[in-house]
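Notes from the 1:1 (GR / supervisor)

We went over the backlog. Supervisor wanted to see one worked example end to end before approving the batch request, so GR pasted a single chain during the call. The sequence is below; no edits were made to it. Supervisor asked that the structure be written out right there so they could see what the output format looks like.
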Amino acid sequence: QEFVTVLVRDPKIQKEDSWHSYIDYEIFIHTNSICFTRKTSCVRRRFREFVWLRQRLQSNAVLIQLPELPSKTPFFNMNNPHHVDHRRQGLQEFLEKILQDALLLSDSRLHLFLQTQLSPEDMEACVSGQTKYSVADAIHSFASLNRRFPIEDEERKKGKNDADSDSESSSSGLGPSDDSISCGCKASPASEE
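Structure output shown during the call:
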């Protein structure tokens, strides 16, 4: 039986400059679904990136009523643990519902959002073929940069030479992958904005 576990956790305040701060959240994915290039991944995203994702998914799946994001309230206080946790729960519920829809799972933007740290602009460029790398390349590159143990890179290189049949050949780059090595998540601020 296929499963996709998604956790939105570990909210952290990030400083953009001396006047502006924002909160980002860790998104952890663990799955055995053939829809995912990586079986385990971990990225950090901020609220406005979730807003971007919802807008893009809605424009590509016009007939589907997407779940709502937690409301963006003018009274949101990032120093109030209740406000932050309420938003975190809402973001997790949003992703849980999205990941249950097969049509939405076929959108490459969703996979880039969940499994890379690319900015929305870079995700759009990748999906529209304006980058040197494919969706699968972007996901594998991000995972390689975030491994906990350097030896895993050596094993991956050795395995790639031994069996080139594992490479993705689907046009979306989201085909099956033999990936059982988990990657670590580094809590680095999102510098894409």
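Supervisor's comment: Residues 81-98 form the longest helix (18 residues).
Batch request approved.
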